[in-house]
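#onboarding

Welcome to the new folks! Below is a worked example of what a typical request in this channel looks like: someone posts a single protein sequence, and someone else replies with the predicted structure as tokens. Don't worry about understanding the tokens yet, we'll cover that in week two.

Example request:
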Amino acid sequence: MGRQGGVSRNPDRPGSRRYLWRRTYGHRRVAGDLVENPKVGQRSRIVTLPGETGGRQFVIEYINRPFGGKNAVPSHVHTAYMETFEILRGRARYRLGSETKTAVAGERVTMPPLVPHVHPWSDSAEELHVRQIADANPSDLRGLNSGLQAAITLQGLARAGRVNTKGLPNLLQLGVLIETTMPATYLAGPPIAFQRVLFGGLGWMGRLAGYKTAYGEYGVITARGPEKPR
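Example response:
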């Protein structure tokens, strides 16, 4: 297990038999196809859905282009989730609290609850391949599904050219997405109480204006699993 808020060695490090098996044959259970966010230079896929674990966990893998991926997810904080990032290939930088740190292939980064953070991004001329594991304690099927759905929608909006240079949509669409991830996830910085009021109001206005959490053309997570874009 990784140290809380730190880095440890990864049993799936490059060169290990387990890593080579996954590289050669892939995962036995892949919940979703590879999707791309061209605005931030990231490709990702869902490996394990929250519904497969009783709402306790999800697993995704992502690949960032060289020196890319920093704006894939804004700085944020989880109230009860611990996230683990296994660096499978490349060199990464990430932010944990007020510190920016590095990690290399074979290391595992843990990000505990209530600590603001930014997910690992590529810090070299090589692609960065990461396995991300989110653990909810207690289990939170709705919250984990909402977080995944928000990510899927952001990727779809990016492919459609409906995000800015930081990979974010307009304020009303953003409000709809962030409201659905509360109370499990908040942006880093503004007080949580303020965000509840702000994004609660923006979410309400956004829904009135026709913005949604999920769009069929981008992909939707249902009780049966992810539905491919129409």
